[in-house]
Design goal:
The chain is an alpha/beta fold. It has 15 helices and 14 strands. The protein is globular. It comes from Microdochium trichocladiopsis.
Length: 464
């Protein structure tokens, strides 16, 4: 039987399809084209319908403890799972197949040990660094995560304002539930942390919040080009994140059980992650097309092997005599397996970092290497930075914070990780992210021959 809340709408790819419930609406195409007002109204109606639908319970936020009592990302997750609807939980928490990759993303950090140094003056500690040439207050960014308004009405604007409290960078999802202009401009309407104290701010004189835009290339290239033209009008967006790790969705069984048909339509018949996504991207063709339609730096998201990182670095800085249209424009990569939501049993970003050190360490000086997936603690962040990552991204943690407390909940998630990172750095004997080096970690508990070889390589590198 058809859902009584079904309604027809036309997304900006020109495809007419039914809106079945709030999950479908909020994970659909971005609502910021010529008919954006209509789409926003449709989202509001479906949110209200979901709130009143007994089949989609949304427990009271009164069940969540005060934010100051939530001491870890695990606490935030536990509280979020009590206040989110079952459909939202199935979307945010799900991963593909047996969820082996999703859990491996976190477990790998437990196998890396820290090696503190003593007699180091750690009276003061700064988390400031740069990401693709943009100064940020913490080595942490919010990864693109669709449908933030499924967690809280603040949506992506709540995430943006929380990031502003820390000078953190936000990568806006291609499937954001709010217009990019509304997201970036929401920060301008608030007092910056450099002007006023905040219970969540961790240091003064924070840099202005920066944004990046996640791009899925659509089969209808004209639509993608129109999107890029709109993004060009927003100076707050500093670079484009071209997403490559999910040309097709994985088999996410929790989504299927809750009939999130726009994410996965069932069985083994793979559907595009975003309606109309192009699955035939190639290095030269796609990058040459992209640089013709944006002046912004480019970051490739979803690289899962050292070979692809090496290729990216080779194209970013080609050998003498070679030149590509995108040379100098390709500035970084995000090692990511889509949070375990695409192909299961893949390598983790940390494994790729280790392979980079073994096979092509020179790329660390050519590209900004970012990672996301599995970050639960500040010690995880420190380990990733020591292994060569420039910054790390969080996705689910930000959404869980948003679900529990809106903007303040996201700020609480960032505060927890910032404080834990500061503590870990001081106890290690370093005062800034740039001081972290491979000798600050031990890989002895990783038993494979590969990681032993990497550890030997680390020992041969210069120490501080």
């Amino acid at each position: 039987m058809a859902n009584p809340r079904a309604a027809q709408w036309r997304n900006h790819t020109g495809i007419t399809r039914p809106v079945l419930d709030s999950t479908v609406v909020l994970t659909s195409r971005p609502a910021w084209t010529d008919h954006s007002t209509y789409l926003v109204q449709q989202r509001e109606q479906c949110i209200a319908a979901a709130d009143n639908d007994p089949s989609s319970p949304r427990p009271s936020l009164e069940k969540a403890p005060p934010l100051h009592q939530l001491l870890s990302i695990a606490d935030l997750q536990e509280s979020a799972l009590r206040v989110l609807s079952p459909k939202a939980i199935s979307y945010y928490a799900s991963a593909s197949d047996d969820e082996i990759t999703k859990h491996a993303n976190s477990r790998i950090f437990q196998s890396i040990l820290l090696r503190p140094r003593v007699f180091r003056d750690c009276t003061s500690c700064s988390l400031s660094t740069t990401i693709v040439g943009n100064k940020v207050g913490i080595p942490l960014f919010v990864s693109p995560a669709a449908s933030a308004r499924l967690a809280h009405r603040d949506g992506e604007t709540g995430i943006a304002r929380a990031c502003a409290r820390f000078g953190a960078l936000q990568v806006i999802s291609h499937n954001a539930s709010m217009r990019p202009a509304d997201i970036v401009n929401s920060v301008n309407t608030r007092t910056s942390m450099s002007d006023a104290a905040s219970p969540y701010g961790h240091e003064s004189n924070l840099p202005p919040v920066s944004f990046a835009w996640q791009l899925y290339v659509l089969k209808d290239l004209a639509t993608s080009e129109r999107i890029l033209a709109e993004i060009k009008k927003l100076p707050q967006i500093k670079f484009i994140v071209l997403t490559l790790d999910a040309p097709f969705p994985g088999k996410r069984e929790a989504d299927e059980r809750h009939k999130a048909r726009d994410l996965r339509t069932g069985g083994a018949q793979a559907q595009p992650q975003v309606w109309g996504t192009e699955a035939g991207l190639t290095w030269h063709k796609t990058l040459s097309w992209l640089v013709r339609h944006t002046d912004l730096p480019i970051v490739l998201k979803g690289l899962q092997s050292w070979e692809d990182v090496y290729l990216a670095a080779s194209l970013a800085e080609p050998q003498q005599g070679q030149q590509y249209p995108f040379s100098g424009r390709l500035r970084g990569v995000i090692l990511s397996n889509h949070g375990g939501r695409a192909l299961d049993t893949t390598t983790t970003p940390v494994h790729v970092l280790l392979d980079i050190h073994r096979f092509c360490p020179e790329v660390l000086s050519k590209l900004d290497i970012l990672i996301d997936g599995g970050i639960q603690r500040g010690t995880d962040i420190v380990k990733a930075l020591a292994l060569g990552a420039k910054a790390v991204g969080i996705g689910r943690a930000a959404l869980y914070g948003l679900a529990v407390g809106g903007e303040d909940g996201v700020a609480r998630a960032l505060e927890i990780l910032a404080e834990e990172t500061t503590t870990a750095m001081k106890l290690l004997g370093v005062t800034s992210p740039d001081e972290l080096r491979p000798h600050h970690v031990s890989l002895c508990s990783l038993s494979s021959q590969l990681t032993r070889a990497v550890f030997i390589h680390f020992c041969s590198r210069g120490r501080q």
